Each structure stands twice: as structure tokens, then as C-alpha cells.
Amino acid sequence: MSSHREAPEMAKDPVADSTDVYAFVSPDRPNTVTLIANYIPFQAPDGGPNFYEFGDDVAYDIHISNKGKGEADLTYRFLFHTKVRDDKTFLYNTGPINNIGDATWNRPQFYSVIRLKGGKAKTLAQHLPCPPVNIGPRSTPNYPHLAAQAVHTIGPRKVFAGQRADAFHVDLGSVFDLGTLRPFEHLHLIPSADAVGRNSLQAFNVHSIVLQVPISEVTRSGRRATDPSKPGSVIGVWSSASRRKSRMYDRSEGKYVGHGPWQQVSRLGNPLFNEVITPMALKDMWNSHSPKNDATFAKYVNHPELARLLPVLYPGVFPHLAAYHKSRADLNAILLTGIPSGVVPGFQNFTGTVESDMLRLNLAIPPASSPNSLGLIGGDAAGFPNGRRIGDDVVAIELRAVAGVTIPLVDPSFTPDAAAGVLTDGTTDTNGGTTATFPFLGNPGGGYQTEPGTTSVA
Amino acid sequence: MSDTSRRKLLAVTGASVAAGTVGLAIGPAEAAEARRSGTSARESVVAYVHDHRSNEVRLMVGEREIVVHDRDLATRILNAAGGQ
Known about the structure:
The complex is a heterodimer of chains A (458) and B (84).
Chain A: E1 18-25, E2 32-43, E3 58-65, E4 74-82, E5 109-117, E6 120-129, H1 143-149, E7 152-154, E8 157-165, H2 172-175, E9 205-214, E10 234-250, E11 255-268, H3 273-277, H4 283-288, H5 298-302, H6 305-313, H7 319-322, H8 329-337, E12 359-362, H9 394-403
Antiparallel strand pairs in A: 1-2, 2-9, 3-4, 3-10, 4-5, 5-6, 7-8, 8-9, 10-11, 10-12
Chain B: H1 3-6, E1 8-13, E2 45-48, E3 56-61, E4 64-69, H2 71-81
Antiparallel strand pairs in B: 1-4, 2-3, 3-4
């Protein structure tokens, strides 16, 4: 979760595993939008000597749809390459790394940024350095300094690619033990005493691509969005990762070598979509599809398995949900088309009738001065499912939506069960903490500082 | 219909489908004397026969995938894979 190891084949390929995607109007520069794509889940900070890095053989993409067809009208592609400075040592670093250009970093990684639009590719930047991972106080003594050096400016854009603390939080151990939510365990079919949630992502890092671009660069009109009611104010956003279609092990090079076109193997729009909506047998196929083909999967949104399980796992707690058998038009709107005007007063993020799983962001809605982590269902139109901010509690929001709190938006005859409005797994972000400015995600936990199973941040 | 006229190639690029039909200039009798054309690949190529009952051969080269429908080529690859 939200898309960490969410599909059987993808779980075996973490370097290409999209784990989270965020899209929000930048609170530090409101004329820009910040797009974040995370990859490589569950990084133990002390995982040396071969620490985590982006794949040189993976194309990492952030896609924008602005014409309402569930297709990528604009894609930012990130291609990485690593260098070994000294092939006589086994060390990741041969001394302290005080600056990202230091020769003591034996395995620096660099990347190119390419914009794909209208069938044309334009290289925006090349050979941009990533920061090293956070090793420890002797190897990376001033990690915030290293991370700051890896923030690059490309014309009006900012970009960062490197290790960050995973800001997503969820109680995996509980949720996947037959749908247990620790704060409500006494109500479970197999009951036990209530407990506080445990963040399963605690102390783990991810690799993040953070891109901040002018809003005018991503809208269909080429202008900054100012009217929330206008269809042109809404964009769809998703991330993906692709590998070459064929890989051959080249013994002379001691590694796999790719041949053929890029083949998408991972994608992510709305958090948890592939995780808890798509049946297991279809998850990897879903990963290879474009959002424009998601009508095939609409039946799993309209009649979600989780909505059938909740009344079974929590007997007597969800009687109204158990009796509701209509197609879930509320979830269809939230996840596949966007919410049209007239459903939530003063708000819309409708992208048309093409059913496609994308984050939908109304760019004319300014950042909230006091964000509510429950986003739109908490009365904060600047949060999920209007795009997704780092602090949005998407597990609680989606649990509550699936449990029925959003049904009255489209079916006023339905009264949600009392429990639906308070559902949570009881977790919060216990990692590095977010920052108020770019790149927003917190510094990664350090290897030396890590006590396995605990939160530790340099 | 000769073997030569049955041969069709479909080129598929990573970004978009660019389809075209190209007739090969040689037939099975000349295969042993095949010469490289001016546009032949100058890099590693992976050939993939997914279904041994079909005449389809997929060639991975650079960032392209070339789909060749060529019974003779497929047969020669299958024979070679069988040790002949």
C-alpha cells in the first residue's frame, strides 16, 4: 500500500514498483503544481553495501492527461545512469560525502528529464546528479545539505530525484490479517482488545521523483487555471515505470541488457486502486494498461469486494452497507471520472465520461491554509480526491468512502452506518516528516541511525 | 502465392505504432547467399518465436520491436532451435 508490492509480479521487481503518486498545487509557489512519483518500497536505511538506487534499465514516467480521454497528453520521463568511479573497491563511499560531486561517492547516479508531447520528445536536462542515500554520520554527515544540492532548476521548473522518507502510512500487519483495524478490533469477527495502529512503513525509505512545473505547462489551454468550475482547470495525473520488452543476461557485462521498446510494468493513479479494487489475478495486467482502458475494471469499482467484506468482518456494524446493492456511482466518480459539478457545492474535478484511474486535480483551487488530512470528505477541497497531498490520510478516506460515507452524494436515500464515518487504521506518518517547501518529502532515515523496526531520521 | 510475397513486416515503436509492409528481397533458395541490406541492424537483436505453430517472429532491436510474418524464417529458427 498504497501501491507497495501491490501486484504479484511487480512485488518481485521493486526497482520498477510505483508506490505512491502525489499531485497538488504548490503551497510555496501557487502558480506551480508539484508532482511526486515514489518507487522502490520498504527500503531499510541500513541496506548496504549496495544501497538502493533508481534502475538504469527503467523508464520512470509522470503522465498528465488534460483532454479528458484518459491518455497521456504530456509525459515527463526520467532516465537514470550510474557510474562507478573506482572499480577496485567494494565500497559505496571511500570517505565522507560532503557534497554530491565528491569523488568519495563511488557510485553516483545521474538522470535526464525528457518531455514527451504530441509525439515529440524534448530533453529538458541531462546529467543531473542525485544525492547519495543517507548512510550515516560519518559517510553523509550533513544529509540535508546533500539533498539541497540535488534540487535542480530547469528553466521555470524544479526537480529532485533521490531517496526520501516514505510519508505513506498504513497498518499492513493488521489490515492484511483478515481486514483488522486495531482501533476497532473488539468489533471484528474474530475479536480482540482494541489497540493503537502501527505504521508498517515506519523507518522505511523510498526513492522519489519530485517535479514542480508552472501550471500553465500542464493545462490544455497553456494558461494558469483560475476558475474551478471550468473543465480545463482539471488534469489527470498518474505515474508509471517501464522496462525494455526483452532482457538478456550478458555474461561479459555481468548484467541484464535490454532490447526492444519500453513496456509498462507498473502504474499508479489513485492510491490503493490496484491494491484493493483490482482482483489479484488481473493486477499485473492492470499495471501494463493505460488509464484509457480502465472501463474494463469499472465493475470492480462499482461493486467493490471490500464493501462486501466489511459487513462480514464486522458483524452488525454495517447493516446499511450490507443492504446496499446498487452500483457505487460515488466510487465511480471519485476514482474513474472525477466528481462532476453539482455534487459537492463549489467543487468539481470531472474529466469526462472516459473511465480512467487517475488522480484528478482541479488546479484552480488554491492550497488550503489549514489542510485537513481527510481532504474533501473533511471539507477541504484542496485535498484528496482533488489530487493528493503528502499529508492526506488516504487509507482513512478510502475506507470511509468504501464503507459508504460518500454514497449520499449521489444517492440521498442512503444513510451511512455510524461506524463508516470514523473508520481508520489508526496510523500516522511516523517517518521523516514533510517540509513546507520543495521537495516536501522528509529526509530519509539514516543507515547508521537505524534501529531495525524503529523510526530514525538523520 | 510465393513465400516472398507472404512476408510482411510490422514495425512497432515504443511511443506509437508505426505500421508498414515491406517485402523481403530474398526467397528460401537464396537464403544461404543472403547479403545485408543498407538498413540492416548494426546492433544486438533478440528474436522471439512465441508460438511455434505460427509464422510470426518478433525482433527486438534498440527501442523497437519488429514483427515479421515469415514462414521460412520462423521455420529456420525453429529448426535451428531443434539442433538442425
